[in-house]
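Record Peptidylprolyl isomerase, 451 aa.
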Amino acid sequence: MNSRYSLKTLLVTLLFTTTLAFSSAWGQGNPIVVDKIIGKVDNYIVLKSDLERAYLEFMSRGEITGGNARCEILESLIINKLLVAKAEIDSVIVSDVEVESNLDNRMRYIIAQIGSEDMIEKYYNKTIAQFKEELREQVKEQLIVQTMQRTLTEGINVTPNEVKKFFNQIPKDSLPYFSTEVEIAQIIKKPSISKTQKDLVRNQLIDLRKRIMNGESFEALAKEYSQEPGADKSGGNIGFFKRGELAPEYEAASLKLRPGEISMPVETEFGFHLIQLIERRGNEFNTRHILLFPNSSSGDIEEATAFLDSIRTLIINDSISFEKAAKELSDDNLTASNGGFFTDDSGASRVSVEDIDPVIFFTIDTMQVGNITRPMAFRTEDGKEAVRILYFKEKLKPHQANLADDYQKIRMAALNQKKTQILNEWFDKAKDDVFIDIDPEYNHCNILGSQ
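=>
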């Protein structure tokens, strides 16, 4: 963990960044908010605690606003609820599979950054399963909002002249100051999993199935052995899902079972599952499972390492560029499309050293610009073994924003402003299609433009 941050600071930063609405956290040295509804859009509500939590996150990032921050944030929350309400009217949906996948990724990221589930649970006095349950509806809402925003702003772009005009309108004394930034790229090779390793996991699940058939508790064994985040508290119970919402192999195996029956091991993209059907209600079914990931053998890791070592040699000998190799050979889809480069929220390939993974930070801290590391084993965000090489392309000293060095960031800011304008115009029209009510306490915010 980066020593620049205390545990409490890191916890607060991570949890607010992923919008975990854990009300118990407010009792630990923070003012307790007496909650009430301050906004309503059809059946969707905004609580005062939602506003205060978003405001605290806003201030923790060191954001500066020329207006009333709470009013701006409340307007954003109301617009989000309007997007969700309109999505319901327009039948725009996101699948539960997408929600669960996003939720699991967030939990894995937080657990990886903090160090363990126990550290999170002890600090907030909540189980991982409770965290996930409280976060699920927020994640679903965020995904719906993102889908609606993409739909409404699809095809919007800005010209170089619009970027320049946007930049020139920023007062010189208001230009942002960027900390040290770096350009880093990676090529990742995920070791192939041998049949031997897969068979080991299958046999382990078969042994667990025998123990359950002989009277041991499925939930107890799931708590002890399952590698799903939170399974040690939930006992592997994932609740009700409809057809089409889970991995096809998982669903097919589940629907062949009678209530109480247990499947043989089932392989999906997530690993191997031992599934027990709990209940069926028409088109919905409730299951619990034990999830195990097959590990790569030492031979698999060595093979991946040798592969990347050969690629590194080709790059050093100018037989192929790092960017081309990353696009064609990296197993990390997110960075491969960018030629292996990490990007910030604006899509720029230079990222602040404060935002990169501490492991990567300490690696490049010992490197010369232009160098490529030898293959290094590591674990991906979902906990799987992999090997990568890192390319340290450039380091830019702290500086005030300018068009020459920061064009991509400025372009993205200009684009976001243009998209915001379009969304505001949409809001002015769409607000007549739904019922909107805001607490009179916030009349001065003029959110509806009618006060």
